[in-house]
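Example record

The entry below shows one chain as it appears in the dataset: sequence first, then structure tokens.
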Amino acid sequence: MTGARRIFALLLLAGVFVLEGYDLNAMALAVPRLKDALGLEPAAFGSVFAVLPVGIGIGGAFLAPLGDRIGRRPLIVFGCVGVAVSMLATSLAQSIPAFLGWRLLNGIMLGACLPNVSALSADLAPERLRATVMSVVAAGIPIGLAGAGLTTPSIVAVAGWQGLFVVPGIVGALLAVALGIALTPGAPEAPSGAPAISKVPQIELFRAPWFFPFSIFAAALAFNAINLYLINSWLPTVLPQAGFTLDDAARISGIVQLAGLAIGIAASILIDRWRPGLTLIGMFLLIALSFVAIGATAPASWTPLLLVGVGGASAGGMVLPALCAYLLPPRLLSSAVGVGVMIGRIGAFLGPLLGQAMLSAHVAPNLFLAAAAGPAAVCALVSLWVPAALAVRRGEERPSTS
């Protein structure tokens, strides 16, 4: 691929992450408005929030690894088409079961697509800038989250809550067409490096030597996902309970994601040029401290703390797949990200349900947000093992002296 075409392809791949970020926030922003529109109580949507990560886990575990065998491009285009269809169908939903079904399909399609987007961005990136390029591409997540929050008042004013799903549905269809054209011919559809030992490459992740580095990646992804889905699912509902208006809550939920963009890019540069383990420990400790501070302060001082806490959780979603490119060989990257996403969905499934339980128990907004300090602290502890995990790959790639 020419340099210009490579950059264009990376921009389109970033667009897929923008779509995911928008999608993640769209449901959360629609829920407070569905009580008046459809008579559905916000607390009833815990299962709807939880089913999306379940679908992402299914797609990530069983569909995404096909990218290591048949190529990245078919999975990416197929996933974008499926996301477009499911988003447009969600705009027609009128009941909890309907929302559940379409959000499950939406998650499966995202799970098939996103790990291959991460893997292909690694294939397209210069080796010395791999984490930075992958994180810049994945920066689409906080951009999408921010875009959803900032544009919601205008979209709802024109198209009602349905517009929050129609807009990304149209974008998903356009991305499918553009990626189908941009990635052929000449795009690296299959991973570089030696072929996988097994016809089912996922199995290698649970064998020596790759089990240890993969488990570190998956554990950090799972605990960060608890925060990512806990906070982003319920923030537009919790902030009004603390005195914010619905529109102000939507805007704040968008603005804090821009901080996640900055945190994620800064952390990825440090991973490329400094020490990955210390970078992640510092980032997750800062996130934990910000949520602790929210629990001890008044709502008037929350916005800068949310910039660090919520933004940092979104940054984790950017940085951890980039770390995976350093922990695992290229031939296993789609499988590693896909299966890691499945394991991470355990946290993503628990996050919304934890929020639902706290809402049902009428937990105060400051304590609701303070609960997010726990998963962030666990991520910091898991990051202590990152240097040892990196040493495994260095040992495997060191030329034999025998």
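Notes for this example: Residues 3-395 form a domain with the Growth Hormone; Chain: A; fold (CATH 1.20.1250.20). DSSP finds 16 helices and no strands in the chain.
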